[in-house]
């Protein structure tokens, strides 16, 4: 299965409505910064004034597992790895902070509840930037482009969403759920699950007959078990962003954006990206 190349998809970011909306939000947030300090430039930032939950620590909330973006990993410094976690670890290191990760439900994260309650500093959970979410959250600059996809048993006879029938699993509160609600045929019964940690076993156990969710996650499942295949991809022009409590952490938002750009400029972002995604899946 081919994962869409970073170069072609990222070139489209500047023209997306989501990017324009989020860029405006980010600029407004940065302009309204209080008495906080500024982050450093090329690795080694100033963590003063970042409105952190705990001094010296970047506390990240994420819905885990969601491979290849976030998985438990005893060998990792924070106890977690994956694309999101590795990017967050690099940002924390550049800001001279310790990374701490908390596992939370995606629905509570994307609604803004856990961030608004001050449980963590930032949400890093393969979260698509949407206008609806931006009403309750501030987003970083986009850091990843994604597609939706349909994963089914290889012997199911299903060739597209149009001829799918039976129980279709989706993750609650996600853009995959929204896409399925809008496009699934009448013969499909949508069943919501709190996370991929429940979706994948449900498909393997026959409780559901398909999963509609982010392409990279379904690619991981298809790689792990060849009796399941991705039969269709959906270009929904989605971009992921790191999430922050609305209007509450302008300095941290600015620091994360600065470090993301520094990582792109010095090649670190590409190194992390290539460790998880390649032109040939």
Word description of this protein:
The protein is α/β, with parallel strands linked by helices and 281 residues long. The protein has helices spanning 6-10, 17-31, 83-94, 106-110, 113-116, 175-183, 196-204, 215-224, 250-266, 268-276; strands spanning 57-62, 71-72, 80-81, 98-103, 122-123, 137-139, 144-153, 166-171, 188-193, 210-214, 228-240, 243-245. The strands form 4 sheets. A 5-stranded mixed sheet has the order 9-8-10-7-11, with helices on both faces. Helix 6 (175-183) links the parallel strand 8 (166-171) and strand 9. Helix 2 (17-31) crosses helix 9 (250-266). The termini are close together.
Radius of gyration: 19 Å
The main sheet comes to:
5 strands, mixed
- How would you state the average pLDDT, rounded? 86
Strand content range: 15-25%
* H/E element sequence: HHEEEHEHHEEEEHEHEHEEHH
Order of strands, main sheet, comes to 9-8-10-7-11
Helicity, as a percent range: 25-40%
Structural class: alpha/beta
> What is the terminal separation in angstroms?
5 Å
Low-confidence stretches: 1-44
Number of helical segments? 10
Please tally the β strands and state the result. Answer: 12
Anisotropy-based shape: globular
Spell out the blueprint of helices and strands.
Layout: H1 6-10, H2 17-31, E1 57-62, E2 71-72, E3 80-81, H3 83-94, E4 98-103, H4 106-110, H5 113-116, E5 122-123, E6 137-139, E7 144-153, E8 166-171, H6 175-183, E9 188-193, H7 196-204, E10 210-214, H8 215-224, E11 228-240, E12 243-245, H9 250-266, H10 268-276
Helix pairs in contact: 2-9
């Amino acid at each position: 299965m081919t994962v869409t190349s970073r170069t072609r998809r990222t070139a489209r970011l500047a023209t997306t409505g989501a990017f324009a909306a989020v860029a405006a939000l980010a600029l407004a947030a940065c302009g309204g910064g209080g008495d906080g300090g500024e982050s450093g430039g090329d690795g080694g930032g100033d963590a003063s004034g970042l409105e952190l939950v705990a001094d010296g620590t970047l506390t990240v909330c994420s819905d885990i597992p969601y491979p290849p973006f976030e998985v438990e990993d005893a060998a990792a410094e924070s106890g977690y790895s994956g694309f999101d976690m590795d990017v967050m670890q690099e940002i924390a290191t550049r800001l001279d902070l310790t990374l701490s990760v908390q596992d939370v439900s995606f629905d509570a994260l994307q609604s803004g509840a856990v961030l608004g309650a001050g449980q963590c500093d930032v949400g890093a959970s393969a979260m698509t930037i949407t206008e609806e979410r931006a009403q309750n959250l501030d987003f970083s600059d986009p850091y990843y482009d994604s597609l939706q996809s349909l994963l089914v048993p290889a012997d199911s006879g299903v060739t597209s969403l149009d001829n799918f029938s039976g129980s279709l699993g989706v993750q609650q509160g996600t853009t995959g759920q929204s896409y399925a609600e809008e496009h699934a045929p009448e013969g499909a019964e949508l069943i919501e699950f709190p996370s991929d940690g429940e979706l994948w076993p449900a498909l393997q156990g026959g409780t559901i007959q398909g999963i509609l969710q982010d392409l990279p996650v379904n690619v991981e499942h298809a790689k792990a078990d060849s009796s399941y295949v991705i039969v269709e991809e959906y270009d929904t022009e989605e971009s992921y962003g790191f999430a922050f409590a609305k209007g509450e952490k302008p300095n941290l938002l600015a620091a994360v954006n600065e470090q993301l750009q520094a990582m792109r400029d010095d090649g670190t972002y590409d190194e992390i990206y290539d460790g998880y995604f390649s032109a040939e899946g």
